[in-house]
Amino acid sequence: MKGRFTIGEIAKLHNLSVKTLRYYDEIGLFKPAEIDPNNNYRYYSTEQFEHLNTINYLRSLGVPLKDIKKQFEERHLDDFLELLKRHQVEIAQKISELQQIHHRVDNRINEIDLAKQSNYTHQPFIRYYDDRHILQLNHDIQSQSDLELSLRKIENTSHLTSSIFIGSVGVTLPIERINQMKYNAYNSVFIAIDDEHITSELKSTLPAGKYVCLYCQDARIHSPSYYEYLFEYIKKHQLTITGDAIERTIIDQFMTNNPEEYLSEIQIPIL
């Protein structure tokens, strides 16, 4: 019959799967114009094309099927306008989230590129940092287990996901513990955050200022010699330590299977 199409023909014409059209029928969103009582074949008409075009349009915008179905059931212009406005707000939120993700990825790429190209491995140098926003848990960390459990606590307390952790985790080590040769007796763990609008009781700041830094070819800081390099440099240049040492892993075994590419960093605030 002219103007009558099978489900396979409609799927091909509108670049959809037969499974999708059957699902639309099942939930009452887009039903066939006719079902053959003899064989239960579904048939659609050209008059339904605009209906399906509208569904595809709204789906392309990311509007949920339940909202599309409700619109077709009620078909009020004001409701349609409100639907679009509501979705516009959701899109703006997603854009903001993607911009934050892009910023984190960009920072991570730049950090790894800089670290790979640096000539400062095992050589202390001074770098200035602006204020760095962190989520910090003040708690003794003496093992990998302590570290992981503390990160979970930060995650749960601050309603975050583990996806922001990669390359953002650090620990602090008091100078007096270093002087006592307690090189794994950390007193806090923190996660650097890019979003200043995150609210949490654990929110803190690594203060702006100068830091003596050292890149170390290890996934974790194991050798006391790294701190010896730093203290010699600080003494030689008559600098004053103003806070706890910071340790961060930049490249570890989960990023490369070549131990020669492992990289960590120590930062010590100074005047």
In short:
This protein has 271 residues and is an alpha+beta fold.
Gap from first CA to last CA:
87 Å
H and E order: EHHEEHHHEEHEHEEEHEE
In which range does the helix fraction lie? 40-55%
The major β-sheet equals: 8 strands, antiparallel
Q: State the helix count.
A: 8
Strand order of the largest sheet: 4-9-11-10-6-7-5-8
User: In percent terms, what proportion of residues is strand?
Assistant: 15-25%
List the uncertain runs.
none
| Number of DSSP E strands | 11
How large is the radius of gyration?
29 Å
Please, what is the average pLDDT? 88
**Structural class of the secondary elements?**
alpha+beta
Overall shape? elongated
Folded structure, characterized:
With 271 residues, the chain is of the alpha+beta class. Helix content is 41%, strand content 23%. The model has no long low-confidence stretch (mean pLDDT 88).
Based on the model shown, name its key terms.
271 residues, alpha+beta, 8-stranded antiparallel sheet, 3-stranded antiparallel sheet, 8 helices, 41% helix, 23% strand
Secondary structure topology:
Layout: E1 4-6, H1 7-13, H2 18-26, E2 34-35, E3 42-45, H3 49-60, H4 65-74, H5 77-117, E4 125-129, E5 132-141, H6 144-158, E6 169-173, H7 175-179, E7 186-192, E8 203-206, E9 209-216, H8 225-236, E10 245-251, E11 263-270
Antiparallel strand pairs: 1-3, 2-3, 4-9, 5-7, 5-8, 6-7, 6-10, 9-11, 10-11
